[in-house]
Here is the input.
Amino acid sequence: MEFTWSDDDERFRVELRAFLESRAPGKPPKGASERLTWVKSWHALLVDNAYAGPSWPVAYGGMDLPFSRQVVYQQEIARARVPAHPGTGVQIAAPAIIKYGTDEQRRRFLRPMLRADVVWAQGFSEPEAGSDLPALRTTAVRDGDRYIVSGQKVWSSSADIADMLFTLVRTGPAGSRQAGISYLMIDLRSAGVTVRPLRDLTGGSGFTEIFLDQVVVPVDNRIGGENEGWTVTRTSLGHERAAGALNQAAMYRRVVTELQALATLRGATGDALTRQRLARIECAVRIMTLNAMRTVSDIIRLGEPGPASSVSRLFNSTFEQELHELAVDILGMSGVLGRSDPDAVEHGRWTWGFLRTRASTIGAGTAEIQRNTIAERLLGLPAEPVAG
Ligand SMILES: Cc1cc2nc3c(=O)[nH]c(=O)nc-3n(C[C@H](O)[C@H](O)[C@H](O)COP(=O)(O)OP(=O)(O)OC[C@H]3O[C@@H](n4cnc5c(N)ncnc54)[C@H](O)[C@@H]3O)c2cc1C
Here is the structure.
């Protein structure tokens, strides 16, 4: 299925493409802190030129684009290969702030987040609360106009480069589950915060563990009512699953074409089974684009992605694993050479992708949890039994 774009959409595409071609920041610098500065200045430039936040309100630095232009925007961003936004705030916390924050909080948090002046990380998971998030135990005790927060968070992506943490804390009694959770913004530079990077399968440290020891947080940093954080969280989690759906689909359209080129170059297309797997991947990337469009049109129509975002999430995460499995099979023995090996094909990108995507069916809710959501909330099947 192909879509046609209006003349206005095409004019927008031409203008955006010209902007990206003339202003794209080129190759990243070597050091980690130089790279972060480089990424941040790119996003500040986008906001300052009104080319950031395609779905965000204009008042907070966004573009508030209609559906078709959001699709065009993501296609052009993927084509230009410009750096992604640092941290996870824009896609996950911002929708919750826009919906449940006060005007003062929207003013304080949103624009600096979009410009990447302030980088945000997500602190939801805990050692004993991942899939079962309502079991979380980090406590926030009210003391006048502040909370005293203690506990531990884990798997927080990019928290080592972040300034702020959007997090969930227990403000109700122990065991109060969803009814005793608040949504709190914590300054990671506060006394009592320790962030420790965790090494992952790729050799990098994409995520961290965070220790909170009597951290003082102003009550003004709470989004939504006290003990009413679960409603806010559902907005965040829905957007996390829908996050970047369009952007990911546009990016993978390019990657699949590159995979097809790799197969041709390595002489793998003579093999019938490989051709069959390539055809499956080609079909899947087209389905991914349609799913992404459905998710974004749901957000525009209903204000929320809804449980259908679990379909996109499950589909995309298994897709990216399958794609990289095929890539390393095509590479054969060369597939074992990592990014640091000078003989690695395309600087080891396929092998790195293979390792990185092992985590895709865990992050943002595991594949099993997405299947539960699809079964219960979309298909109306009986709810899973609650233990105890
Ligand atoms: C790359 C990556 C990035 C992440 N980034 C962040 C982040 O920025 N911030 C953050 O807060 N968290 C983050 N996470 C954590 C992620 O949300 C959790 O890992 C995830 O929710 C699973 O929780 P868990 O690891 O505690 O596993 P568990 O919940 O202990 O699950 C263990 C296994 O049991 C299965 N299982 C559990 N419950 C059920 C059930 N009811 N039905 C069927 N099967 C079930 C699971 O599917 C899984 O296979 C990230 C994780 C990854 C991998």
